[in-house]
Specification:
The structure holds two protein chains of two kinds.
Chain A: H1 3-13, H2 16-25, H3 32-36, H4 43-55, E1 59-61, E2 70-72, H5 75-107
Antiparallel strand pairs in A: 1-2
Helix pairs in contact in A: 1-4
Chain B: E1 9-16, H1 20-28, E2 48-49, E3 56-62, E4 68-79, E5 83-88, E6 107-115, E7 118-126, H2 133-157
Antiparallel strand pairs in B: 1-7, 2-3, 3-4, 4-5, 5-6, 6-7
The chains are: A mainly alpha, B alpha+beta.
Amino acid sequence: MTVDTLSVVFSALADPTRRAMLARLAKGPATVGELAAPHAMTLPSVSRHLKVLEQAGLVTKGRSAQWRPCRLEPAPLLAVDAWIAGYRTFFDERLDRLQRHLEAVSRRPPDSTIGDLP
Amino acid sequence: MTGTPAARGFTIMRRVAASRAAVFRAWTVPEELVWFENPGFPARVPTTVELRVGGQWRVHMVESETKEYVTGGVYREIVPDERLVFSHGAVGGWPDLDLDHLDDVPLVTIVLTDIDGGTQLALTVELADHLTEDEVRHWLGTGIAAGWEHTLARFDTSPDP
């Protein structure tokens, strides 16, 4: 997945309503009406949110069924998870070093510490 | 949060055998922030800390003879020995941070609590909800690609497990 594709997925996720819709779809397929029900907004604006999710490849609409249920497509979310994991590694490594640093500081004799321990 | 299937952030918990005050100092005193640098590649520019809301901390990160960048943050909230909130990044560094648009970079929250034998550190990273597609693209393009490369490069050279 390219950075551009990933940024489209991130952008689609950058909205609480769209995340709530995805959370609903994670439990199973739903119609547009069912997706709209918990939100105080018109069907057209729900459809606009759905379109953003579809363009990001996060949601597909059934072709054959009369009421075309929407489904969650998890693949792009896995790419986001992988990206987050890479960023998390940066902080994981830093905190490993922080733990070692603080252990070394606490082993220093009291008269040579930087600052004062309570 | 709404219980979404996709995370836009994460939390790391660590137990540290040191007082809250010692952990807070390790994050906010330039001489102590040496642990943030890459093992075996000391900073060639002194670390600076302006410990006030709106102040910046900057650490020079050296990856190799030819690869280096500045990281750090802009403080958003400071409660001594308890809580530290900063926008992660540096002007002209990684993530590339614009002082007028701090919410375009990840927000890092560090919370320190007393536990038996030391301190529990919770580090949370969150992406702001309001980012437009262009902002995300800019940030991903300039920041994360570089950051990931740095992180992966470290696996090749680091002797640590």
